[in-house]
Design goal:
- This protein is mainly beta.
- It has 3 domains: 57 residues, no CATH class; 98 residues, no CATH class; 138 residues, no CATH class.
- 6% of the residues lie in helices and 41% in strands.
- The strands form 8 sheets. Strands 9, 12, 13, 24 and 26 form a 5-stranded antiparallel sheet that branches. Strands 15, 16, 20, 21 and 22 form a 5-stranded antiparallel sheet that branches.
- The radius of gyration is 27 Å and the shape is elongated.
- The two termini are 36 Å apart.
- The model has no long low-confidence stretch (mean pLDDT 84).
Length: 315
């Protein structure tokens, strides 16, 4: 919470909010002074509008701007980009973005996308991020099928370092993998209503509206670092895909799931982090918060580009 609010008697408006607390103020010959001291301990007063920007009583604070975009609030929107008009470098400027889809009735922000202000072709753009909810058209990539073969043991396909080769027929190549935001493998049995992940030695259903981080998964596509440990360059092999099992019971649980499908096979999907491949952020209105540091800047306008849609955002 900001602690001090500035008011302009000349313009009859509230001008800004500040992080500091002052005990008293004074004007002397058009110079503005204030103090945060209730007792004299040597530093009695400080002069404003001199020295380092945003520095009060020996401490420097960042400038922040918070805005809401609520034009036509009944219309569902897909938010595409936000350009920034103003003077200044905006170096290391950070912005947060969220929409009405992630603001609860109590006002709690259930999800906020954070990122740096970027410069493209001389124009500055805020970070909007991607919709974190799992959407089949954007985040689930079909990889192929696994079939049960009598006498086959997935555990025998161990490559070491908890890496295993899964025999997938019809492998779709091109899904990236990273050490931090891993691409998770999930599975669909024709006998089950839901796509499931393997977590530990159990199956967990993926429900509508879940986010990437909600899906607990112990079988992921092997990252570059994982592959280097066994002398491989790619997780995509001619006879399958290399995965990393992060729990002891994960591969036996997957083998049990395959054996239940008989000859119909198990469909395999890759679940990609929506921050890299997800859909646009959506909602009826949006909020943005900027932290711009203490450097000189002047903000003229924030231009939020969006596309109207009649689709229900809950789908």
């Amino acid at each position: 919470m900001k602690k001090t609010i500035g008011f302009s008697n000349k313009n009859n408006v509230w001008t800004s909010k500040y992080d500091y607390i002052a005990s008293n103020y004074s004007n002397i010959d058009k110079k503005f002074f204030s103090s945060n001291k209730l007792v004299n301990d040597g530093n009695v007063a400080w002069r404003h509008n001199v020295g380092t920007n945003n520095s009060f009583y020996g401490n420097t604070y960042p400038s922040t701007v918070a805005v809401a975009f609520s034009a036509n609030p009944s219309q569902n929107k897909l938010y595409k980009s936000m350009s920034i008009e103003g003077a200044g470098e905006y170096k290391n400027g950070v912005n947060l973005f969220t929409t009405s889809d992630f603001i609860s009735p109590s006002g709690r922000r259930e999800y906020v996308s954070a990122g740096l202000i970027s410069n493209y072709g001389g124009n500055k753009y805020a970070h909007l991020g991607k919709d974190p909810r799992i959407r089949p058209t954007a985040d689930l990539k079909y990889m192929g099928h696994m079939f049960f073969r009598k006498g086959f043991d997935l555990m025998e396909n161990s490559l070491g370092n908890n890496l295993y080769k899964l025999p997938i027929s019809g492998l779709a190549v091109g899904v990236g993998q990273g050490a931090v935001n891993r691409t998770k493998l999930v599975f669909k049995s024709p006998r089950a209503a839901n796509i499931v992940s393997i977590y530990g030695g159990q199956q967990e259903a993926i429900q509508q509206g879940m986010m990437y981080n909600d899906v607990r998964c112990s079988i992921n596509i092997a990252s570059t670092e994982d592959l280097e440990s066994v002398g491989l360059k790619s997780a995509y092999q001619n006879d399958g895909i290399v995965v990393k099992a992060t729990a002891v019971g994960a591969i036996p649980a997957l083998a049990g799931l395959i054996s239940q499908t008989a000859e119909s096979g198990l469909t395999v999907f890759a679940l990609i982090d929506p921050r890299h491949a997800g859909d646009m952020m959506r909602g009826q209105f949006a909020e943005a918060h900027f932290t711009l540091g203490a450097q000189d800047f002047e903000l003229y306008a924030l231009n939020l580009n969006y596309e109207q849609t009649d689709l229900d955002h809950s789908k």
